[in-house]
Fold this sequence. Notes:
The complex is a heterodimer of chains A (about 375) and B (about 425). In chain A, about 35% of the residues lie in helices and about 20% in strands. Chain A is an alpha/beta fold. In chain A, the strands form two sheets. In chain A, strands 6-7-8-3-9-10-12-11 form an eight-stranded mixed β-sheet, with helices on both faces. In chain A, strands 2-1-4-5 form a four-stranded antiparallel β-sheet. Chain A is globular and about 65 Å long. Chain B is of the alpha/beta class and about 425 residues long. Chain B has a domain at about 30-155 and about 200-310: 3-Layer(aba) Sandwich (Rossmann fold). Helices cover about 30% and strands about 20% of the residues of chain B. In chain B, β4 and β5 form a beta hairpin. In chain B, α7 (about 205-215) runs parallel beside α8. Chains A and B meet through α11, α12, α13, α14 and α15 of A and α7, α8, α9, α10 and α11 of B.
Amino acid sequence: MSTAASPPDRRHPTAPADGPAVHDPAAAGRSDATGPLLSVRNLTVRFRRQGEEDFVAVDDVSFDVRAGQTVGLVGESGCGKSVTSLAIMGLLPKRGNTVTGRVDFEGIDLLSLSPRQLRDRRGRDIAMIFQDPLSSLNPVVPIGVQVSEVIERHVGLSRAKARPQARELLSKVGIPDPDRRLSEYPHQLSGGMRQRALIAMALACRPRLLIADEPTTALDVTIQAQILALLKELVQDSGTALVMITHDLGVVAGLCDRVNVLYGGRIVERADRHELFATPRHPYTNGLLASIPRLDAPRGQRLSPVPGSVADNIPWDHACAFAPRCDRPVAACREVTPELVTDEAAPSAPGGLPRALRCHHPVEPGQESR
Amino acid sequence: MSPARAAGHDGHDHDRSGEREQQREREHAQEHRPGREPDGPAGEGTDGDVLVRVRGLKVHFPIKRGIVLDRTVGHVYAVDGIDMDIPRGRTYGLVGESGCGKSTFGRALLRLEELTEGSVVFDGVDVASLKGEELRRRRQDMQMIFQDPLGSLDPRQTIESLLLEGMSAHGLTKGQDTRTRLRELMAAVGLPTAALRKYPHEFSGGQRQRIGIARALSVNPKLIVADEPVSALDVSVQAQVVNLLEDLQDELGLTYLVVAHDLAVVRHISDVIGVMYLGSLVEEADADSLYEAPLHPYTRALMSAVPVPDPEVEDVREQILLSGDLPSPAAPPSGCRFHTRCPWRQETRCDDERPELRVVDVTGRSVAGDADPTRRGGPGASSHRVACHWVEEIAAGTITPRRRAASDAEPETIGRTGDNPPGRSADSGA
């Protein structure tokens, strides 16, 4: 009922309007050789709320991931980054929400698949690592069984035959003494080890796409370093594409080739990592970078936080959601919804993909806060 | 409501709070930091500008088995022998991984945990021996800010009643200046006065943390122990709270003990930093020298593990990857507690001899950080203390870390984060 009421004003009815923004021309030009492995187009997720208007958690998000590429989705809590990943994987509950748009994986729209078809792909072609390893593992089933289960399901091996492979996987992700660990339960493993076990499960069928949702947020920095090194190695060795969802810009700086910054459910800036960090154009990206203390910066500098909080957002309908917190708003920011515009004129690095920006009054190069 | 509350608490607290006001005035009169008064029972030859002096602090938790007999079968050595001086008006940052005992230490300072051994001398008074009413009164000077702002605020109390509760317990709610005080507090933490009538759930995370800070400030403490004050907050909001803490310190001359795992945040706000590993301090120095010249192998590994939000730095960053996890604090390794994970571990001493925290002056190390010890935060700050047998040799480079064995996931690895084959990072443009 309420869904029928709201869509027209929220969505862009005419695709051509954001044609250039949505379709990454450089990626398209390349697609003859290696098309994107995953191509998300106009993904929108709206949650129905009783007696209220729908909440649009993910709003017209489009991005590409190519094989061997690491793409970051960055943003604060509530920006829609996790919902995006759940929608891609088809893991959102069936009721209470609507998912529109396209999620093409090797040319097949995942959103159009039946649950059964999707199950065949999940775990085999696409795998996911979650933030909290303890709640992603079954507490009453030994690690070994959980890892070999994936192999049994997708490769069709018997448990006895899958077990040596599970052992192999555990040692590959750096779990010492894998033989013993196979028969242990999740609670007997430390946090870092559980996350490794989860990664082992995700890798069991050599997926072509790995989605990692805050894989290191719950871990200590030294363990985080281990896990990140492991992920990096995987991408390099196997050519797996990685979608990295995180709030930690430090992790992004070291890991991601391409970065999408999300705010209020929409992508507000997209660039290759070097360009993004060197010349952030969106005031939000700029503000984020200025607000984190850096271990290698001289001390005594005052941090410049982004004022307010996510609660101050205004709807994207006829404005920029970030406007109330922005340090350089202009009149248009509260009247016109900014579009994600690909900046063809200024291609980032030589040969790099062009960057895209959703802002009426972007930060000019040289005006960055730090 | 509040006048009624205040009236109820008027009686016996009256003279005491008058005393406090006098004291506060006295402190104000002393212009800058009230810190000249001699404290510490013996003085110990330092310049006396220490607010909290901790000696040999141990907190062990018994592990119990059995329902009827309740036998103690072992102990978790959460804090196992810590000496620390927290300089007055400064910020002491305590870092370490989860399970290293840093939070327990913070709580033990406030006597929220029972001390197994050792002394905590707070402003000249041994807190460890205080009991009952005396201890309760002392708590006015020592407040805490918790990690989870929602979990630490009663959901059924308005902000006003939350703030008044602590104040009335210490007899600070009498007369009409209570309302003024509440308004001051809200202004100090950057919240509107209207917030007083709201409930905790009506605020965002950052605002809740501000309320937690206001509650700590409400009783005019001298020391605030902040346990992971910003780790539950969004990045953009973290900076707001960090700045607020810094402003309040400048304004009120507070002393902080900031317990956190985020090295960048700790380094940003602290004057002195202590690094904890399995219940003891492994290194202590002022914030700048610790970053410029981390000496203990663990500190080095910890620092090198922190990602820097700058791809240029990330591509060339040297990283020391530690093997494995923190050993159980119930069965800490013998000798140096870090030897099981240390890339620099030697055949002798490391395994069986527990290193002491000693002052180290490694030749060739920049001493610029020591040039102005007064600015750096008094005793302990100008000296770089390290608990490692081989620190001089490691700093001189005569002992080198073990390198990673080629294929397997063997322990210690030294690698560069930018170990990408050239093809990868250029991949997007290839």
